[in-house]
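[audit] Reproducing an earlier prediction to check determinism. Same input, same settings, fresh worker. If the tokens differ from the archived copy the diff job will pick it up downstream; this log only records the rerun itself.
[audit] input (468 residues):
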Amino acid sequence: MSVGTGKDELNHSGTGFQQNGQTEKLLTRLLGSVNDLVWCTSPDGSRLLFLNESAERIYGRTQQELRSNTAVWLEVIHPEDRPFVEKNLRDLSEGRQVEQEYRILRPDGEVRWLQDRVNIISDESGAPLWVGGIATDITDQKLAEQSLAESQAVFHSLVESLPLNVVHKDLEGRIVFGNRRYCDTLNQPLDQLLGKTDFDLFPEELATKYRLDDQQVLESGEDCRVVEQHRMPNGELIYVEVMKGSVFDASGAVSGVQCIFWDVTDRVRAEKDLQRERDLLRTLMDNIPDLVFVKNRSGNFLTVNAALLNIMNVDSLDDVIGKDDRDFWSPELAEHYRSDDRQVMESGEALIDREEQIGEANHSETWLLTTKVPVHDPNGNVTGLVGIGRNITKRKLAEQQIQRQTLEARLLYQATTLAGQTSSFTEALQGCTDLVCDLTGWPIGHVYLPDEERRSLCPTTIWHKTDN
């Protein structure tokens, strides 16, 4: 590093500026160790009196080039910034000091940002002695500011484009930001909302709840997501889904809470309507004598009604949901039901009014008239089935009683007729045995008679056998 073009240039006639060699060396060493560019020129700028070594690093040019060509200092300034810098330098004599930021172009095409502070140093009479300046490379700072500005622009663009209400509050609950949708929801411009709290905008009951939610988020550090009521300025009560989370500053300290919410009134009302319909359906299912069940594609129970719970001998739906027929019926009966289920779901065709017998957990017999209908999703795929079993046990028992009485009447009639046509007891027994087997369909029959002491039965020679 060299100082100006020589010691004499720092000792203008009449300036009174005198330095010994030791002071000059110390000053030169100190200025050479700083990262900022330090320079000094004559009052008219025609002579460069001092330039430290940082100039080469910042400008990407040698000191010789920078010293030998004074025009290069303006030439390297970005064309868009050059008029601004030239004007500041022209006005320097009036203000005696200029602070400016501008861009320079290095030989490799890289753009660097400089923050330049320029002063005119005068003698006691006010006559200028020299012009000095310190230029700091603020490129990294500018890039960080640009990146931050771009991030903020992206954030604001995203926040403003989302169909959501976004509001940011400080630690005291005061609004520091709200997106356009939030302002529209409250029917107030942002400048009228800034600094206000929930107590300025909502009824006290709601405002208190909102504030407690905010404080819980701030104290716990955990996000909060709830569906809550929200009263519009016009008095309309709507439902909103709310997400709240802490906001952190650059040091990582909590600086406030951010709230995002959106209108879910239609969804909540639809859910309530659906729940009401489910309650009505459940009431209907649990108060009809028929057995009702729903199964998924794998044959697991999704729900059953109270009548079927009673048949299964269980206390609640929790004991049934997720299980299948094998958990409640004998292996043979369970496989029969599952086979019917597979047939319905694989074919997509309903099974209508099939009479079948089931064994209850208490070992009593029950007859059902069963219907199974496949359930389809919106794409037409079978996802399970709905089954209804009507208990026809009383009807079946009545039919069996009628059949038995009819059979008994026929037997009595034909046995009486046969008795009048036979001449021996053995022939009559043979005829009655054949008659009973023919009417009942039994393939074989045999007669046992009591012994003489009437203590036991003894086989006879009377048999009935079909040809098969």
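[audit] rerun output stored. Observation attached for the diff report: The mean pLDDT is 85.
[audit] end
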